[in-house]
Each structure stands twice: as C-alpha cells, then as structure tokens.
Amino acid sequence: MPSKLALFGTALRIAAAPMGLLPLRRRVAMVSRQSSKLSRDYELLRDELATLDPTLEVAVALTEPETKGIAPFAAAMLRQLWLTRTSRVTVTDGYNPVVSIPARRQGTTVFELWHAVGAVKRFGYQCLDTPAGRTSADARDGRMHQGYDVIVAGGPGAKDAYAEAFGYLQIAIAPLGLPHMDDLYSLADPAARLAAAEQLTARHPWMANGRTTVLYAPTLRKGPGYDGWLERYVTALAKACPTDAVNLVVAAHPLSGRVSNDLLDAHPFVHQLARRTAELYCVADVVVTDYSAVALEAGLAGVPALFYVPDVEAYRSSPGLNIDPVTDPLLFGTTDAAELMAHVTDAGLLAQHAGDYLAFVADYFKGVGPGATARVAREVLAAAGN
C-alpha cells in the first residue's frame, strides 16, 4: 500500500500537470516551508534583485511546516506549486515537495539557498535511517532534495558535507555565501559593531556592567531523553559561572521553549532574550553553542565560539557530525560545564581559543568575503534571462 507521502506526491504531480501548460513568466519564485516569516536571506535577495533589475517580477510564498497544520499547509503548497511551475527561476531555502516531487519543467532553473551558513551536524542523505533523520522510504517517496540546479553554500568548507547531504556532485555546490552573511561581516568592523552594541545596550543597560558576556545559543533538541534539556543545560552552566564576572545570555532556538522564571530568579546574572543572534553578536565576548551553524556565524562576526556538548556521544551516532568540536584540534568542546567556564573566564585561554577558532572559520569560508547578496542575485538574474 502506498505511503501517505507517496499519495501526496501523486496528488502534486496531477496538480502540476496542467500548470505546466501555462506560459513561463520572467519571474523569480522564492518559496519556503520553513516559516511564514520572511527570512533575512530572502529579504536581502529580494531587495537586491529589485535594485539590479526593477522590471524583474519577484514573488515570495512562505508557509509554516506541515506540522503546524495540514489545511493551511496544503493551500500554501498549491500557490507555491503554481509559482514554481510558471516562473523561470525558483529559489528555495530547504526541502520543498513542490520543487522536488514534480519533474522539473524545461526552461526553468532551481536554486537551493540552504538556510544555514554551514553544516556542523549531518543532515539530509547523510543521516538517513537514524533517529534524527528521515527514513530511506520517505526520502524515496518525497524525492528528497531532487530537482536543484545550483546549491548555494556559505563557503568552500561546506562543499563535501553538502554534496553528501543533498546527494549531488560537488560541481553543483556553489560557495557564493548567503546574503545574511553580509550582515555578519559588517559586525566584524569595529565602528559598525560599536554602533550596534550601543543600540542594544540602550535597551538592556546591564550589558554595560563590565562583565564577560557569554551568549549561549544551542541547537534544537527533541526526542527521547531530551525533556527539559534546556533547563538542565542552562542550570549546569549557571552553577559553573563566577556570579560576579559573567553575563550569561540565553538565546535558545525558538522551538526549544524558554528557561523558567525560577531559574532566572535563582541566578540574576542569567538573562533570556529572543533569538536574534546576529544582533547579539555585537555584545558577546564569546558564544557558547554545540552543533549549530550559529558557531560559524559568530566567527564571521569576529566572535570566538566554544562548544558545550554534554550529549556529544549521542550526536555522533544520530544524526552524526561533520565538524566534531571535541576532536578537532582548532576547536574547544567539552561535556563539562565547569571546564568550559574556566576557559571563558581565563583571558589567556580564551584568547588562544579565539585565535584558533577564527582561523578555522577563515579557512571554512576562504575566498568568500562580503558581497554574497550581490553574487547570489547576479546568478539568479542571469538564470531569469532577458
């Protein structure tokens, strides 16, 4: 008996067939099933395309994932399907069934503008049939990551992982950089960083208390054994902090929930802010993360990252790691909160790790540099034709 995903794929193909008879328009369709909110990458790319060619039509269609509700998701999929079948260029920021399941229409080009600047943990075809990944059957029925012409990567350091994760030859991976990397590179400029820090400090005066500001930005965790993980991990870090020397700023993944008021009351130096991490880099002395591409973003902004990974053994098994922060000689990762905080508060050790880490990030993004928005926009514009 066909799976639900296979039946959904059949319905998509049936719906796509008459749409494929409609004329192609000189239009760029920017579609996403990641979120109903416009991403910074899409915002920058849309505006740059309008600047380069005001006559080019750009349509943006976003939706929450199917887990948020089937009815609105299905309606959004129909609109996205129509756009992708009638536009010369499609840009997607993750797996999208309307892109991958129907056979691609002749005369069109599809860009995969992956939403992360790099790949610390494994994803896609790298982790099939693991607890954290898709099953082989779902990957087959959903034609996972099929139909792309160009896969845009943040830097050359991601090419091997992306080729494996998407199931493409490396020639399809274009390390052009992602548009939002331009924001991060701008924060590495002292004047821009100071101006951004002053604006943020005006809203949160405690940031100017002279302490070392540690931004804790962990990845999302879910599944067996992870109930209450954020509270446990933040508590461990807070107990290891010298209370008169550190601001511990928690900026968790939006789907991870929040730490309790009881924890915040017990540790007044712990602060919880919305995860606008690009903004927070300007006041962070160090970022503490785990398997998130936040680590790479911090390096682009000139901020060193350390890795708190109490569950690293589990992550090595599922989904697996492209970058192992414990074994890589240029990184510092630990399962012990006290050891991590000892490095955070030791100026010499932190400076040493900062140098090693920023060298690692520079190599990962070697040859990219500012201007990613314009580079991606020019490639998209060329594909749209005249």
Description:
The chain is an alpha/beta fold and 386 residues long. It contains 16 helices and 12 strands. The strands form 2 sheets. It has a 6-stranded parallel sheet with strand order 2-1-3-4-5-6, sandwiched between helices. A 6-stranded parallel sheet has the order 9-8-7-10-11-12, with helices on both faces. Helix 12 (294-300) links the parallel strand 10 and strand 11. Helix 1 (4-19) packs parallel to helix 3 (70-86). The radius of gyration is 22 Å and the shape is globular. The mean pLDDT is 93.
Explain briefly what this protein structure is.
The protein has 386 residues and is of the alpha/beta class.
Based on the model shown, name its key terms.
single chain; 386 residues; alpha/beta; Rossmann fold; 2 domains; six-stranded parallel sheet; globular
Class from secondary-structure proportions: alpha/beta
CATH class of the largest domain: Alpha Beta
**CA-based shape:** globular
- Estimate percent helicity: 40-55%
| Architecture per CATH nomenclature, i.e. the level-2 architecture of the largest domain | 3-Layer(aba) Sandwich
Which runs of at least 5 residues are low in confidence (pLDDT < 50)? none
Count structural domains. Answer: 2
Strand content of the residues, in percent?
Answer: 5-15%
What profile does the largest beta sheet have? 6 strands, parallel
Separation, N- and C-terminal Cα atoms: 47 Å
Averaged pLDDT, please? 93
The ordered H/E elements are: HEHEHEHEHEHEHHEHEHEHEHEHEHHH
- CATH fold name of the largest domain: Rossmann fold
Query: What's the oligomerization state?
Result: single chain
Count of discrete alpha- or pi-helical segments spanning 4 or more residues: 16
